[in-house]
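thread from #wetlab-drylab

HS: before we spend reagent money on co-crystallization trials with zinc ion, can we at least see a predicted complex? here's what I'd submit
DV: go for it
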Amino acid sequence: MSVVSCPRCQIALKKARLGLICRNCEGCWLRFEEFDRAVLASEDSLVGAGLKATLSPDSPEIDLTPAVHCPICTKRCRRFPYLVDSGIIVDACSKHGMWLDDGELSAIRTYCRLNDCMPDEPKKKVGLFARLFGKKA
Ligand SMILES: [Zn+2]
Ligand SMILES: [Zn+2]
């Protein structure tokens, strides 16, 4: 696979066991099945997968206002509120996956646990992302 660059910093993303992570802004790029696994996984296994840095929102001064472009196809990502009322805004390419800025993954994990909306087991193939685009609430 060719080099995939951070949509915010334009530097090469580092491969984690789950997804790709930027060592500068600490955002991460996840394919949809990886995203479901990242939401379901324990914190320990995310740390083990190399995603520790993205869990705490402590990146240096990163401007999060510009639109994100998919690092795979370079199309502009769709920006939308995650599960409508969580207050978390995520950027996603409907074909390739989603970009989560530093801290967003743990915010989503917390939201899902508090609101009892965990994705089905991955084997069922209907993940959170399908629910995101398929249904309103
Ligand atoms: Zn970055
Ligand atoms: Zn794309």
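DV: The radius of gyration is 14 Å.
HS: ok that's useful, forwarding to the group
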